[in-house]
Amino acid sequence: MSMTNRKQAFLEQIKADIVSNNICPDLAREATNLVMGDGNIDADVVFIGEAPGKKEDLSGLPFMGAAGKFLNEMLATIDLDRSDVYITNIVKYRPPNNRDPKISEKEAFWPYLVRQLDAIQPRVVVTLGRHSMEYFLPNQKIGDIHGQPSQIKFGETELTIVPLYHPAAALYNGGLRSTLVEDFNKLSKIIDFHKNEKENIKYGSKKTL
Ligand code: URA
């Protein structure tokens, strides 16, 4: 089995486990789809949002509505599209009326997000908004650390976490919009650094971020 097929099988198993372990039955009952993720499962970069909204629930794919369109635009500013990255959420079912996910819901889904990252093995994790940031960088404020990379130990691997504002927040706040554009430029440099690092490791030299 190829590496990609193995990852795909792991991801299918995680989805099946969410269903068979009856995670967040109140959300599941109301949801049309379990929204696992979209994009390239071999990507070095994973984006993590909050929870599906109406369009995501209906399509089964994350970031398909207005915030998703804006995220696609931001990706395009740094010459990326959704097929270059993987996109998911911390909570995989739509909360009713798009309310904020509850702590209990985020906690219930966290182990499955950990398994998803374990399957995909990214180098860089971009958190979109505070709901996913707080699990990787606890007790931090997005206003203080947005756009700044942090190295964390995640299981057996080192991950670079880049916390960004949620695109939905920037959509309705012009000031945040330019901040997000600047932060995407920083992100582009971080992604390039990791690409070069991979090459450097291949050729026997290693620099740090
Ligand atoms: N907002 C999110 O956080 N995730 C989505 O999938 C859509 C909107």
Shape: globular
Unreliable residue stretches: none
Q: Describe the largest sheet.
A: 6 strands, mixed
Q: What is the chain-wise order of helices and strands?
A: HHEEHHEHEHHEEHH
Strand order of the largest sheet: 1-3-2-4-6-5
Bound molecules: uracil
How many E-type strands?
A: 6
State the distance separating the first and last CA atoms. 34 Å
Return the CATH architecture.
3-Layer(aba) Sandwich
What's the alpha carbon Rg, rounded to whole Å?
17 Å
Total tally of structural domains: 1
CATH uppermost class: Alpha Beta
Compute the number of helices: 9
| Percentage of residues in strands | 5-15%
CATH topology group: Uracil-DNA Glycosylase, subunit E
What's the CATH H-level superfamily name?
A: Uracil-DNA glycosylase-like domain
Indicate the topology.
Layout: H1 3-20, H2 25-30, E1 38-39, E2 45-49, H3 54-59, H4 66-77, E3 86-89, H5 103-120, E4 124-128, H6 130-136, H7 142-145, E5 150-154, E6 157-164, H8 167-171, H9 174-202
Parallel strand pairs: 2-3, 2-4, 4-6
Antiparallel strand pairs: 1-3, 5-6
Helix pairs in contact: 1-5
The protein binds uracil.
Can you give me a brief rundown of this structure?
The chain is of the alpha/beta class.
Report what the structure shows.
The protein has 209 residues and is an alpha/beta fold. It has a single domain, classed as Uracil-DNA Glycosylase, subunit E (3-Layer(aba) Sandwich), CATH 3.40.470.10. The chain is built from 9 helices and 6 strands. The protein has helices at residues 3-20, 25-30, 54-59, 66-77, 103-120, 130-136, 142-145, 167-171, 174-202, and strands at residues 38-39, 45-49, 86-89, 124-128, 150-154, 157-164. The chain has a 6-stranded mixed β-sheet. Strand 5 and strand 6 form a beta hairpin. It binds uracil (URA).
